[in-house]
Amino acid sequence: MEIFGLEFNLSEIVSAIVPVLLQVLLLLIAFAIIKPIGSKAITKMIETMGAKKNLSPGRTKTLEKLCINVFSYALLFILIVMLLGTVNIDIGPLLAGAGIIGLAIAFGAQNLVADVVTGFFLLLERQVEVDDYVTVGGYGGIVEEVGIRTTKVRGFDGTLHFVPNRLIEGVSNHSRGNMRALVDIGISYDDSIDEAMKVLQEVADRFKEDERFKEGPDVLGVQSIGSSDIVIRILGQTKNMEQWAVERDMRKAIKEALDEAGIDIPFPHQVNLYKGEAKETV
Amino acid sequence: MEIFGLEFNLSEIVSAIVPVLLQVLLLLIAFAIIKPIGSKAITKMIETMGAKKNLSPGRTKTLEKLCINVFSYALLFILIVMLLGTVNIDIGPLLAGAGIIGLAIAFGAQNLVADVVTGFFLLLERQVEVDDYVTVGGYGGIVEEVGIRTTKVRGFDGTLHFVPNRLIEGVSNHSRGNMRALVDIGISYDDSIDEAMKVLQEVADRFKEDERFKEGPDVLGVQSIGSSDIVIRILGQTKNMEQWAVERDMRKAIKEALDEAGIDIPFPHQVNLYKGEAKETV
Amino acid sequence: MEIFGLEFNLSEIVSAIVPVLLQVLLLLIAFAIIKPIGSKAITKMIETMGAKKNLSPGRTKTLEKLCINVFSYALLFILIVMLLGTVNIDIGPLLAGAGIIGLAIAFGAQNLVADVVTGFFLLLERQVEVDDYVTVGGYGGIVEEVGIRTTKVRGFDGTLHFVPNRLIEGVSNHSRGNMRALVDIGISYDDSIDEAMKVLQEVADRFKEDERFKEGPDVLGVQSIGSSDIVIRILGQTKNMEQWAVERDMRKAIKEALDEAGIDIPFPHQVNLYKGEAKETV
Amino acid sequence: MEIFGLEFNLSEIVSAIVPVLLQVLLLLIAFAIIKPIGSKAITKMIETMGAKKNLSPGRTKTLEKLCINVFSYALLFILIVMLLGTVNIDIGPLLAGAGIIGLAIAFGAQNLVADVVTGFFLLLERQVEVDDYVTVGGYGGIVEEVGIRTTKVRGFDGTLHFVPNRLIEGVSNHSRGNMRALVDIGISYDDSIDEAMKVLQEVADRFKEDERFKEGPDVLGVQSIGSSDIVIRILGQTKNMEQWAVERDMRKAIKEALDEAGIDIPFPHQVNLYKGEAKETV
Amino acid sequence: MEIFGLEFNLSEIVSAIVPVLLQVLLLLIAFAIIKPIGSKAITKMIETMGAKKNLSPGRTKTLEKLCINVFSYALLFILIVMLLGTVNIDIGPLLAGAGIIGLAIAFGAQNLVADVVTGFFLLLERQVEVDDYVTVGGYGGIVEEVGIRTTKVRGFDGTLHFVPNRLIEGVSNHSRGNMRALVDIGISYDDSIDEAMKVLQEVADRFKEDERFKEGPDVLGVQSIGSSDIVIRILGQTKNMEQWAVERDMRKAIKEALDEAGIDIPFPHQVNLYKGEAKETV
Amino acid sequence: MEIFGLEFNLSEIVSAIVPVLLQVLLLLIAFAIIKPIGSKAITKMIETMGAKKNLSPGRTKTLEKLCINVFSYALLFILIVMLLGTVNIDIGPLLAGAGIIGLAIAFGAQNLVADVVTGFFLLLERQVEVDDYVTVGGYGGIVEEVGIRTTKVRGFDGTLHFVPNRLIEGVSNHSRGNMRALVDIGISYDDSIDEAMKVLQEVADRFKEDERFKEGPDVLGVQSIGSSDIVIRILGQTKNMEQWAVERDMRKAIKEALDEAGIDIPFPHQVNLYKGEAKETV
Amino acid sequence: MEIFGLEFNLSEIVSAIVPVLLQVLLLLIAFAIIKPIGSKAITKMIETMGAKKNLSPGRTKTLEKLCINVFSYALLFILIVMLLGTVNIDIGPLLAGAGIIGLAIAFGAQNLVADVVTGFFLLLERQVEVDDYVTVGGYGGIVEEVGIRTTKVRGFDGTLHFVPNRLIEGVSNHSRGNMRALVDIGISYDDSIDEAMKVLQEVADRFKEDERFKEGPDVLGVQSIGSSDIVIRILGQTKNMEQWAVERDMRKAIKEALDEAGIDIPFPHQVNLYKGEAKETV
Questions:
Q1: Would you say residue A214 lies in a domain?
Q2: F257-269: per-residue pLDDT in tens?
Q3: Could you list the residue range(s) of the whole structural domain that residue C147 is in?
Q4: N or C: which end of chain F has fewer CB within 10 A?
């Protein structure tokens, strides 16, 4: 066969193309086998893990979807690269080009990856659950959603905070277990500490029957000697999220009990010395 | 054919050039096919996503344009590199040169990429919408525009803040749902807490009928025992952006109600002790 | 031909040199074509963009010059590298050497690149214009010049700040639109809030006719209950840069109106209790 | 054998495949031998180390599991790569592809690796044990769990802090050895320092018999000359975690002893000078 | 020729060495030509630039020396590498070794490079000149020397600050143009604002004739309503570095004028309420 | 020999294997020689250095162990890599794989390396020794152990701080040489400065005989003119760790001497002006 | 010669080994020549530089030792690498292995390199000399030693600070040139500013003869109008390190001069208004 005076040997061309086609076919088959098997394996693994860690079905699904997505894209990327390699198109330039672009992207996208990696563990480990009261990345409030990239926290003032997961360095979860109720009361220097502690302990004892208390409040003692008062501390353990209401009730009860017992919560004190008039020059 | 005493064999030259031309042709055709298909696929994908996430048409368009731009430039870059490779010009040096330049650029341009990547998700996820009142990257105000590189926020003092998207780490959106109205009132140590709470609850009850309130204000109790006053807290949920007006109205109503009931909002107190004149040396 | 007993075959040498010369020629021609075309394309592009974005001719020129410079140097660098490659001087060592030097430079020069990249967008996007009052990178004042590497800001105390563009992360532009005029006035606990608000609103109404006001000042209500006063807020929108003068005038007018109406702006208050002499030990 | 007019030489194919199969077999055998030996070696090493460092069996197990996991995955990864290399599938593209993905991952996952590396040493070195009272990464409280990725600390207010191990830079362990009990008492300028120190030393001596004290409290002397008082310091060493209770008891005892001895804990003092009436303009 | 029973063919050796020598010669000649041309070109360029930017001859010289040094060392480095390559010593190992060392150095030396790069622009752009009063990198004072690596600033307390150029991020130059003279004066609530402003304006008018003033001082109005005074602001523009002396003179003049006019600069005020004796318990 | 119809030539195989075996043997011998020599050399070097720097034998041992460990592992790693290279197993993939893993590790483990590098110098340079009182990395206290990875510091409150060596940036060692004893005493405005200084110098002179003082305390003069007192400073040099006890003794002695001399340590002063009753509106 | 049935041709082996030996010899000779020449050159260069910069012989020696050490180790490293390359041991794996280790080291050791690089310039540039009073890296005191890795600073409280050179970013050297003596004195509102300035100037004039003053102290004028006093500033230049003693003497002299002239240094002032009794409810 001659084109433009050049001879083409058909059988040579065929014998060059056929093995390539075979290789392509092999690759496609290999990947067609690997993909579903991999996906299955991932699903299985995540589900086992989810069951063991007692995760909600929603979370397990999210984790599965994420893992299978990452797996699929990686597989696809490798398939394309290997196909190009097989078809004998020199993929060096392509890879080099992709490398330069990739470097630029990597710099910019590392935050994204960091979000997803942290998100993966947030979902997996139950550090944070919807309706928990948490402090994460400097934002405090009730968790509304734990996403793979962002966690939504509803602040107590009504603001909705979108917190990128990578900012969630340490998690302070205020909804795990009993909370502390703590009231510091300053009494005057002139009042008897023993008497004041007795009155306060009586109030505390009354609250011990309150079912919101898990560990009855008790008077600890003299917490500090302030510049105008002796500070006495009362401490207890309450049901979760009841600590504020309990503290408010205790403050009211203590104030009333002290009033009754005639014990003073002192105002700031100052001793004044006088020096007649200042200078004659006035 | 002889030039400068050197023989050139035309047919050899032709047989060297033709396959190159064929390869170039093949590449051009390949890319001519890939580009519109890729663009279509992107458009489709973004539109489906936009519909699912309920994005405005404007946003969908911006996202489409961005994605297609990135796709086109990447494709073009790869096409050029591969063409040069085909034409047998050694692209090693070119790539190495580009690599050095690229590294320098990458260091400088990573901010740009980070802006665009963050901008992409800002547009996609509706964390921030025009006319929302938000706090992002330390700037607070009303969103005027969400761009692919910069978000414009109008501060309450009239200043227009241009916030690069990469600075938008956590988004605090104050326009999603009801807001809290909170008023703390200090009453004097001498007044009855019960009576004061009754008066305050009456004011709160009057406001419950106010339609700006979503969850009627209520008196919570004794928030703290201050150095000169007992602080009582009133809390409610209002319609979004009504919280400030509501708080102002409540403060006025409470002040007037307390005046009427003869309950004092106390000034700072101090107990003074005296010690005659200070030293005879004066 | 024999030199030092070594034979040189001239025709061989010629046949080795000629193709190299041809390649060099081709490269030079290619670049001679690419450079002006590229420059033209850039000029065109920038000018179209400038027209669309309504940039001043000066800015468009600066951007053009920058882009063409970068393009020219990149082209020159690639040309040299490719020429060396063609002339068969092994450029491996050269590139490796350049790589090591380049790495050191890149670390040091990234600030420079970051300045220029940010500068490019500052010029392009009109975030900042000469004579705007802005706060950028912690420096506030009037913009005197927006350069490709540095922005000059004249502080209000007369200092000239040279701000490297990379430090300009978020731009707060105080010269875009109306500005807020805000006056907080504390009235005494003993005065009637209603009466005070009436007096203040009368002052505000008088200012509504002032043409510097875009949105007449109005009394908002009780902003806070301070320790010694009730704070009332008055708010309006003024022409840009008139906010300070307007606020000064309002403060004077309000003070005079309150004096006239006999309403007090209270000093800090304190309640004093006495406890005879302190101890006999004195 | 002819397929599509192409001849295949069976024996050639066989002679091409057999050595490959042999190599694969060799690799598999090698790894089958290396894995259990490596695991055993690791187990042995960790156990010896654990015994020497007196670690709890739980910790030793955790460390073993971690080390064997890392070892297994690394081995598996290398096996796959080498198998692919043997089967003559060009793994260049695959590795390059993996490299780009890997770079992106590495940026995002470095936190994870840093967590595990720090966690490894936390487990190994007994800096922190369950039920210790520690301050790590800005969070203080009782350790509830030391994990390979996260350490759980229960704050004294009931909050459960999840602290990623990489944030644990310096560990302050408050449960190792005796703790300091320190009480600063201010006495008035008019009281004799000697007398006050005698009274305080008497209180301290009484506490020396308290078994919670490891090193009896002693009066150190005049710690500072304050603006209204002379501050005297009392210092001792107590059993771990008893320091707060002891300090509270000492404060109460000291207050009562000083009252008895008629020594004053002074309020802030001020000397007042008077200047008749201020200006006639009033 | 035989050595140790091995034959050496002299002519072969010669024919191997001669071309190498020729290449070395060529390289040396090339560099001998490039170096002076490059140096000349740099000198020319810097001098043109210096003339255009109106730089002092000293600065131009420093810049020239720096540029030629960098150029020479880079050239020398490349020459050595290429010579080694020519002489057929495999420079791979050498480069690899240099690469590892280089990386370590680069990490440590980047500060040095950053200093020099910043220094280059500091010298070129006249942001800072000797005897300017500047604030750079947190250090304020009079510039004593602008070097290529370090800038020396003499603080007003006599300290000599050596500021590495890389720390000079933003430059605040206080010696470019007129400076602001600003005096805030608080008058008492009881005094007439109009009258006080008249007296102050009279003082300001007297200063308008002072030649140190570029823009006569004027009374702006009521800057703020303080807790005990009404603050009035006077503002003007003075010659550079005269602002402090001018402000001192104005303060003295204003104090004397107000005294004369019988207008009070008020001390802090406090309203005292009394509540008989505190409790009977005393 | 035929297997599956394939011929194997035994002598060919042998002639392929023998040189490999020889190479392996050579490598093993080389390393068997290098390891003990290297270890010896290191031991020698460290010991010489230790002797010169006067290090304790324990430290020298720790440093030796560290250096020999690092040396051994590096040698082992290189041996394995070279053996694999010799046996003709293509180590490219292995190295590439290790490279990707290594990169991830390097990011995570750099802290570890930084700890050990800093620890090495801490041990070598005697900046910190057991029982020194130091401030390192924000933790202050007595050093209990200087380790290769962590330094243990016992805080004065009994807490044991584990400080990773990399956090030890600057070391403040309070146990090297004499310490300063400094007492600032405020005297009243009405007392004679000369007289007060005389009294204070007398106290200081008495302390000069105290052997805890290395450089007798002296009265420096008027350190500042405070708002209510004239502050006079007394300064001396004491034996290490005696400074606090000495200062306490001096404060007591000074207070008593001033009392005797009738010189006042003044309380805060305030001048009060009065303005009859505030407004008629009360 | 036959071993295991394999033939070895001795002459072939010899002819393979001899050129290698020659190359090794050549390398050794080359390095034997380069090392002393390089060392000499370095010594010369440093000494010339030291002489020009007027460095002490000790510093020059330290710099020489450092430079020659770095040069020697680099040379040795390259020699080993090249020898291995010559002996035909494939150094690829070795280098790759070293590369991975090197990367890990580089991350950890960059601080060390940064210390040495900064130390080099500290020694070279005389920014800091032994016995200078400096503030570096947040530590202030007298320099005791400038080392290549660490600078020792003796704080005024006796603490010895070891400051790694890399922390020395900006150097504030307080021992270069005259220091400022500055005294601010507040006089009462009722005193005549003119008269007070006259008295102060008289004191200043007396100090002008004090030889510790380089630029006689002068009264500058009214520095600020404080809330209770008029602040007048006196400024002068003293010999280095005499500033504190001079200021102390001036404060004493001024206080005495003002007392004599009957001019008051006022205490804080407050105007008190009274409002009968607070509420009837008491």
A1: yes
A2: 999 999 989 999 8
A3: 119-173
A4: N
